[in-house]
Automatic annotation (TrEMBL):
Annotated keywords: Acyltransferase, Cell inner membrane, Cell membrane, Membrane, Transferase, Transmembrane, Transmembrane helix
UniProt protein name: Apolipoprotein N-acyltransferase
Keyword Endoplasmic reticulum (UniProt): no
Upper classification of the organism: Bacteria, Pseudomonadati, Campylobacterota, Epsilonproteobacteria, Campylobacterales
Organism of origin: Malaciobacter mytili LMG 24559
PANTHER family per record: APOLIPOPROTEIN N-ACYLTRANSFERASE
């Protein structure tokens, strides 16, 4: 194994990897501290990529390891609620090793296929040949390819996100241009100022693309229920009343729509006839979007319920959380993991296509937590400029998870030109504009 080689434990190698990871993670923690300056984010993002391209291959492992921990340590928090807290350190280290492997793999691919690249490119011009034999150029190609890899369908590791609050764009085209600019800066060129040319094409010339907000008064409820209290049967009545109080408050303040968080009602709502009828009656006075579980003969769903004028539309989750709501492995391994770690629970059932709510003539795409940060939920959204995203972040707080989620939603809001109304249990609510 490469980790046992003495050269991998060189102090300088480790420090270079750690500095790179800090630069690649700084934008998250600066946002967490509410210290957000575009010029700083732009500089730190470019510097982080510069280090990533120029550090020795041995440092890549440490850069990936620390980056994985800095970005995803919070995932381990949820294991406390599954009563397997002893796994928390292994989960944190596991994410470090996964990103370390991805970073190291980029160099492995370069070394393995470089002779083939050289052979093929030798038939072309000397310029192409010189590029292909350039290790740093091959590394930026590998880093760009890395932006398409989603291990186990988990897509929250996006290096383009470095520039979400910067003067540069976050599209794939912009990312390769940024990498090219950084590569030119690393080369011993007489005219390094040429690096500015790709950056000019990657510059965000429309930072505040306007979408007209709907002519609706929207009440984004603030509910904070701890995860270890949420599903206790003795708390169910109290929690239901908290949600009803939020609806009543929105009615008293003459709002048109009230949004409540993911699974804010700790029950199978479609099976509770009394509560369903009660919410239908409330919807004569105000439109309601509320999160709860639902079920049918196929199994259980994570759902968003839309009540309006005594009618109800149920939007079931389309994209499930890997290893949280579904196990993205073979059926044998899925059953085994569910038995060992989730007390024999079964994966949730997912919907085939996203659902839109028609609210006073405006179309809103329904999204539940993780799926609001995936391309799948934005399918066929061309004529829909608004999204209601509900989350339960009590699994992970206090941590940077709500901030990373917010930054990812900004990424998709820009990509698809939509306004996202995000209401969460356990963290701040946001209206996220492109």
């Amino acid at each position: 194994m490469f980790l046992v080689k003495p050269e991998y434990f060189n102090k300088t190698i480790i420090i270079k990897g750690l500095i790179t990871a800090i630069l690649l993670s700084a934008f998250i923690y600066l946002e967490y501290l509410n210290f957000n300056f575009k010029i700083l984010n732009t500089f730190l993002g470019l510097l982080g990529l510069y280090f990533l391209i120029t550090i020795p291959k041995n440092s890549l492992i440490y850069a990936g390891f620390f980056t994985g921990i800095f970005w995803f340590y919070w995932i381990a928090n949820s294991f406390f609620y599954y009563e397997v807290a002893y796994l928390i350190p292994f989960v944190i280290l596991g994410f470090g090793f996964i990103i370390a492997f991805l970073f190291y793999f980029t160099d492995f691919v370069i070394r393995t296929f470089r002779p083939l690249y050289c052979l093929v490119s030798s038939y072309f011009s000397p310029i192409i040949f010189n590029l292909v034999i350039n290790k740093k150029f091959l590394r930026i190609c590998a880093i760009f390819a890395l932006s398409f890899i989603e291990p186990f369908n988990f897509n929250w590791f996006k290096l383009e996100l470095l520039f979400i609050d910067s003067y540069l764009q976050t599209s794939k085209i912009a990312f390769i241009l940024i990498l090219l600019a950084v590569f030119l800066l690393t080369e011993k060129l007489k005219y390094k100022f040429l690096a500015i040319i790709p950056l000019l094409f990657a510059f965000d010339y429309n930072p505040n693309l306007k979408i007209k907000e709907p002519n609706l008064k929207i009440y984004m409820s603030k509910i904070n229920i701890k995860q270890d209290q949420k599903w206790l049967k003795q708390n169910q009545h109290l929690i239901v009343n908290k949600n009803i109080n939020e609806i009543d408050k929105a009615i008293d303040l003459n709002y048109d729509l009230v949004i409540l968080p993911e699974t804010t009602l700790p029950l199978l709502l479609n099976k509770d006839e009394f509560l369903m009828q009660y919410l239908k009656e409330k919807s004569q006075k105000i439109d309601i979007v509320i999160g709860a579980m639902s079920s049918d003969e196929k199994g259980f769903y994570n759902s968003s319920f839309f009540f309006s004028k005594e009618k109800v539309v149920i939007a079931n989750k389309v994209v499930l959380v890997p290893f949280g709501e579904e196990i993205p492995l073979s059926s044998f391994l899925t059953d085994l993991i569910n038995k060992w770690f989730y007390n024999g629970a079964q994966d949730y059932i997912k919907a085939v296509t996203p659902t839109d709510f028609n609210i006073n003539g405006y179309k809103f795409r329904s999204a539940i937590c993780y799926e609001a940060t995936t391309n799948k939920i934005f399918e066929n959204i061309n004529d829909t400029k608004y999204m209601i995203a509900i989350s339960n972040n009590a699994w992970f707080t206090p941590s940077i998870e709500p901030i990373l989620q917010k930054l990812l939603m900004k990424y998709y809001a820009k990509k698809y030109n939509v306004i996202i109304y995000h209401v969460a249990n356990g963290s701040e609510n946001y209206i996220i504009k492109p």
